[in-house]
Write a structure and sequence with these properties.
The protein is an alpha+beta fold. The chain has five helices and ten strands, in the order αβααβββββββββαα. The strands form two sheets. The chain has a six-stranded antiparallel beta sheet, with no helix packed on it. The protein has a four-stranded antiparallel beta sheet with strand order 5-6-8-7, with helices on one face. A hairpin with a 6-residue loop joins strand 3 and strand 4. It is elongated, with a radius of gyration of 27 Å.
Length: 228
């Protein structure tokens, strides 16, 4: 009776092991192509430029009214709001130019085994990350990658004001997360919506993690696959 129970448990364990192996092999056969996700921000740049130009025109008009009307008093009532509008308009034009330069730049480079950020000197293995989050905002999209415990976050050049003109990433949470934001992700000239971007990143990450787990739990299977 004891021997029969042991054989039954062994059969169940073997069946579960085989099912896990099949699942990992299926997940490991993920996307193999190399691709680049790029930014599309030209529309936002044009809208911001038009709004900023309007502020500059209104600000300049207000600032010129005291001279045009030959006012000797209450000039500050025109100069102060005019200067504020002019300053805001000029800053907006600078930001619009930054968004224009941002248009078409690479956000992420994906391969079957690696992920590279725009401001990373070299790609990082997918297995360095254990997940990601997408944050849908009104005008932009936030993307946060979680670094796996015990792994090292990718090296990134420091983000600064110039990063507005490029989709740079930066570390947060003591380097355990990597964050970036973008307007419209593009792949092969086509816009990726929220769900399409989620599915794309998940497919690469899940396949890389499956291959890593397969190599740890079933190294003999991985060696046979590599030999073939």
């Amino acid at each position: 009776m004891h021997n029969s129970s042991w054989m039954s448990c062994k059969a169940v364990d073997n069946a579960e092991k085989e099912a896990l192996l099949l699942q990992l092999q299926a997940d490991a056969d993920g996307p193999q192509r190399c691709c680049e996700i790029r930014e599309r921000s030209l529309g936002q740049a044009v809208m911001l430029a038009l709004l900023s130009l309007l502020l500059v025109l209104v600000g300049g008009w207000l600032a010129s009214l005291p001279a045009a009307w030959q006012l000797r008093t209450a000039q500050l009532w025109f100069w102060l709001p005019g200067a504020l509008l002019l300053g805001a308009g000029l800053m907006g034009l600078a930001a619009a130019e930054a968004l224009r330069r941002r248009h078409g730049q690479r956000v992420l480079a994906l391969t079957a085994d690696t992920l590279q950020f725009a401001n990373a000197p070299e790609p990082a293995p997918w297995v360095c990350f254990d997940g990601f989050e997408l944050e849908q905002r009104h005008l932009s999209l936030g993307l946060v990658f979680s670094v796996m415990a015990g792994s090292r976050a990718p090296t990134l050049t420091p983000a600064c004001f110039k990063s507005l003109a490029a989709p740079h990433a930066w570390p947060v949470a003591a380097g355990m997360r990597v964050r970036l934001w973008l307007f419209n992700p593009m792949l092969d000239g086509q816009r990726l919506d929220f769900q399409a971007l989620t599915d794309l990143l998940y497919a690469y990450l899940n396949a890389a993690q499956a291959r890593s787990t397969l190599g740890q739990l079933f190294p003999e299977v991985q060696r046979v696959g590599a030999g073939q």
